[in-house]
Specification:
Elements (H helix, E strand, L loop, with lengths): L11 H7 L36 H25 L3 H33 L12
Helix pairs in contact: 1-3, 2-3
Length: 127
């Protein structure tokens, strides 16, 4: 039975964008740039129990990499800037996009796992 005094969980997108606990909505999902806090300071939800490994990182690196390469080729063909312009532009942009979107993707994944009560797969009847 749910506690009538407990706050409603935030929507997964809001939890991801603001770094909110998926249970109580308190800020503090992250302890570092992309590292999760061990648990929620307000409700005690154990974030380590969720399986958010490197899946978001692999997807984001591929997606951001494709976007950056397409943009770099377009800039080269249209403007033909010196090589150092590419180094100064695309390196920091890639790093910022991957880290920024990784934080959002990891937050979204943990919020969706909480909302749908996702757990590791189990074989029915103990087999």
């Amino acid at each position: 039975m749910t506690d009538p005094q407990a706050p409603a969980p935030p929507p997964p997108a809001m939890a991801a964008l603001a770094g909110l606990c998926p249970r109580c909505g308190t800020r503090g999902l992250f302890a570092g740039i992309t590292a999760f806090a061990p648990r929620c300071r307000a409700c005690g939800l154990d974030f380590a129990a969720f399986n958010v490994d490197d899946g978001p990182a692999a997807f984001l690196i591929l997606i951001v990499g494709a976007v950056i390469v397409a943009a770099a080729v377009t800039v080269e063909l249209v403007f033909s800037p010196p090589w150092w312009t590419h180094v100064l532009l695309w390196g920091p942009l890639t790093l910022g996009l991957v880290i920024g979107s990784l934080r959002i993707a990891k937050g979204l994944l943990i919020a969706l796992e909480y909302r749908h009560q996702a757990r590791e797969g189990r074989i029915k009847d103990g087999r």
